[in-house]
Design a protein that fits this description.
By secondary structure, the chain is of the alpha+beta class. The protein has a domain of about 260 residues: Rossmann fold (3-Layer(aba) Sandwich). About 20% of the residues lie in helices and about 30% in strands. The strands form nine sheets. Strands 29-30-32-31-33-34-35-36-37 form a nine-stranded mixed sheet, sandwiched between helices. A four-stranded antiparallel sheet has the order 1-2-3-4. The chain has a four-stranded antiparallel sheet with strand order 5-6-7-8, with no helix packed on it. A hairpin with a 2-residue loop joins strand 3 and strand 4. Helix 2 crosses helix 3 and helix 3 crosses helix 15. The protein is globular and about 70 Å long. The C terminus is likely disordered.
Length: about 750
């Protein structure tokens, strides 16, 4: 493919697949097309504003396109890699090559990383080697001088076994460009520690972490730091590890440890108490403080905290003065940071040339940026005036701020990238994120917000069918996989597919959702089913007041805990909901919460037990009568039992009152089933979040209602097109039988594999 074709050609087969769908609902091919990877997923502007780099996925290949801003027809293509089936998987679809890092190191040199995704695993013991394969590269602005900077072998641990030298690969992860010199990139390599599980339990579950400073011009690597740790590390912008989030695998408490700083930086004495309290399952949702990132000044640490307030705000800690600075970004209604992810600087926006924090990204009902820099705030206002009713995100800018890279999206438009030339107030569109989406055919979507009669403020997203199959159309309420999850703004493929089936689709952030403060997040602990279902019913009433819908054709669909709510709503309010779909839903809360381990943990435990037995057998073979009066060697010590923190948190959140949980479980009240429902389940779910559905598969309600069942795989969870087409086609068949035709009778339960 030549350069011009790569810039201008859209995947025509996708556009044709989505064109001309009629009133019969989308076909499997049309559904699959909606779940194809984005054509353009990210872009970055060079510091001098002359070059633009962006990723393109097309014809099962990922490419980086480099263009001259003033002459877009001139540029170069840098092949990244071809789509591939994940190794050791049974996937039918190929997975695209990812580009986790894409940033200019200077006006003429681009740094990027390419990643082949591996099979997801739940590594509670921290014993599994990396499953992803990542390589870091640098290339000139004209596409020449492509240099491999690091792969898993370049960052490997070198050890000896007997007389042989052994290399143990460490997966690279780009930390950032070095603050003192952008010609160097900081790369971390991680793998299980060498001594982990080898008879020395002090090292069990520890990670061997090395940091390398790599010259992006020559590829020369220098080891900055090498250390075995009990968790994640937070680095300053010079590449020094400063804070460890330490949780030994057999403990249920995570602590922030301030590491010995390099010369010239604040010493560690007494700083731990300023970094926040230890994290336990009991305070995981509550009031706490945790570090997120270092400033360009290595003595300024940014903190997230909701202590003394309801939502997480941003603060800065002066490590030398040992007190907070005047910085306080405190949005009243949304959390700035995800309480589940520490050491994440994603919401923070820095100016790379001025070495300043200039803004903070907010994720409320709509995405926004709170600019701390007045000039950028003015630019934001100017651009929003040019795109009324759209969401404008300033992505990047050149050093003089003369050229601004902006991403404009909203409604059914996945988005498009523009460069704004400030000198002559001119906007130039460069490319669309998903050019195969026909905006004249897509279903309109917009955020909503309202207060319930009880005074609860609810937000969500509404998608309206362009071609409803009946008038007025049915309503489908889609419940996310919370609690401690949420629906977010942006282009929604699932809602588009369901709207193409003729539904008005409402996604609501019911009480218990993350991102809207502690009180909202913890509200449902006292009433796990009734409170969120009250929010779902309030959303139905609000939508009905705003739009014409068929009150006899209201359905509810959910994943995870949202699937539980769908089933529970169907049981408690059969007159409100015609039918339900539950995907990977816990149907028995009591069994789900007391389950000691996930399937992946059971696999790891069995492997470890086999290893212990082998080690003991070798010990017994070698053990003989003591010589010279010496005591015989001690047998190998078994490793400690690991603790799954998230499982412990789930048990605390839902409680240990088995009778209460049983009373709230759909599987324990099969007699309440009077309306049809579809269970969709991945029986090989590894992380333990999906529930057991066997108890509901054979349900026969008072009116002869029986369950329908579809077996799926992790391919659906990972949003691969073929699996998504199968699942949504089956959902469409279910709705055709149970929502659009009142006279149909449900047949015998069936399992599709």
């Amino acid at each position: 493919m030549n350069f011009r074709a790569a810039r201008l050609a859209a995947p025509l087969f996708l556009a044709s697949a989505l064109a001309g769908r009629g009133g019969d609902g989308p076909t499997a091919g049309e559904i699959s097309a909606w779940f194809q990877p984005d054509r353009v997923s990210q872009a970055t502007l060079s510091p001098d504003g002359r070059h633009l780099a962006y990723t393109v996925h097309e014809e099962e290949k990922t490419t980086i396109v480099l263009v001259e801003v003033d002459n877009p027809a001139k540029g170069a293509l840098v092949p990244v890699g071809e789509d591939a089936v994940i190794r050791n998987s049974f996937d039918r679809d190929k997975t695209p090559m990812l580009v986790p890092f894409l940033q200019w190191a200077g006006p003429g040199r681009l740094v990027f990383s390419a990643q082949i995704t591996g099979i997801p695993v739940v590594d509670v013991r921290r014993r599994n080697p990396p499953t992803d394969v990542t390589v870091v590269y640098a290339v000139d602005a004209d596409g020449r001088n492509l240099t491999k900077l690091a792969d898993e072998d370049d960052l490997a641990l070198i050890t000896t076994r007997g007389q042989d030298e052994v290399s143990l690969p460490r997966e690279p992860h780009v930390i950032d460009l070095a603050a003192d010199d952008p010609n160097f990139v900081l790369v971390e390599g991680v793998r299980p520690a060498l001594r982990a599980g080898r008879g020395n339990n002090d090292y069990y579950g520890r990670l061997a972490t090395g940091v390398f400073r790599i010259d992006v011009r020559t590829g020369k690597r220098t080891l900055v730091h090498d250390q075995d740790v009990n968790g994640d590390l937070l680095y300053d912008r010079q590449g020094h590890p400063r804070i460890e989030a330490s949780r030994p695998v057999d403990k249920r408490v995570e602590s922030f440890i301030y590491l010995k700083p390099p010369a010239g930086q604040a010493d560690s004495k007494g700083l731990e108490k300023l970094l926040g309290d230890d994290i336990t399952p009991e305070n995981y949702l509550g009031s706490r403080t945790f570090p997120v990132a270092f400033d360009y000044d290595p003595n300024i640490l940014y903190l997230a905290s909701n202590v003394g307030r309801d939502t997480y705000g941003l603060y800065a800690l002066d490590l030398r003065a040992r007190k907070r600075t005047a910085l306080a970004v405190e949005p009243p209604a949304v959390d700035l940071f995800d309480f589940q992810t520490h050491f994440s600087s994603q919401p923070l926006v820095f100016d790379r040339s001025r070495h300043q924090l200039v803004g903070v990204r907010l994720t409320g009902p709509e995405a926004a940026t709170q600019w701390l820099d007045p000039e950028l705030a003015g630019l934001q206002s100017n651009l929003e005036g040019k795109f009324p009713g759209r969401n404008v995100r300033i992505v990047d800018w050149d050093d003089p701020r003369a050229r601004i890279l902006a991403f404009v999206s909203g409604g059914a438009d996945p988005g498009r990238y523009f460069i704004y030339h400030r000198a002559d107030d001119r906007l130039v569109q460069f490319f669309r994120r998903d050019p195969w989406v026909d905006l004249d055919e897509a279903n309109a979507s917009h955020p909503f917000a309202f207060d319930t009669p009880e005074g609860v403020h609810l937000t969500g997203y509404l998608t309206l069918p362009r071609t409803p199959r009946v008038n007025p159309p049915p309503l489908l309420v889609y419940c996310h996989g919370g609690p401690w999850d949420r629906d977010e703004p942006g282009f929604d493929r699932d809602a588009q597919v369901l709207a193409a089936m003729g539904f008005v689709v409402a996604k609501v952030n019911y009480r218990g959702s993350a991102g809207f403060g502690t009180a909202f997040r913890e509200a449902i602990r006292a009433d796990l089913d009734q409170l969120p279902i009250a929010d779902i019913r309030a959303t139905v009433a609000w939508v009905a007041a705003q739009h014409k819908i068929d009150h006899k054709r209201v359905a509810v669909l959910g994943q995870g805990f949202g699937g539980y709510l769908a089933l529970r709503a169907l049981q408690l309010y059969p007159d409100d909901f015609r039918c339900a779909v539950a995907i990977n839903a816990p149907t028995d809360l009591e069994v789900w919460c007391r389950r000691p381990e996930s399937r992946q943990e059971a696999i790891d435990r069995q492997r470890e037990t086999a290893g212990e037995m082998k080690a003991m057998g070798n010990f017994l073979k070698k053990m003989g009568p003591s010589k010279g009066g010496r005591a015989p060697a001690a047998p190998p010590e078994p490793p400690p039992d690991p603790v799954n923190f998230l499982s412990e948190f789930r048990r605390w959140y839902f409680g240990t009152d088995g009778a209460r949980l049983a009373a709230l479980s759909p599987a324990r009240h099969r007699e309440l089933v009077t309306q049809p429902f579809l269970l969709i389940q991945d029986p090989l779910d590894l992380d333990g979040e999906a529930g057991e559905s066997t108890a509901l598969r054979s349900v026969v309600g008072p009116n002869g209602t029986k369950a329908d069942y579809l077996e799926t795989t992790s391919e659906f969870t990972r949003r691969l097109p073929t699996a998504c087409a199968e699942v949504y086609s089956r959902i469409e068949d279910f709705f055709n039988l149970n929502l659009y035709d009142y006279n149909v009778k449900i047949g015998q339960p069936k399992v599709q594999k």
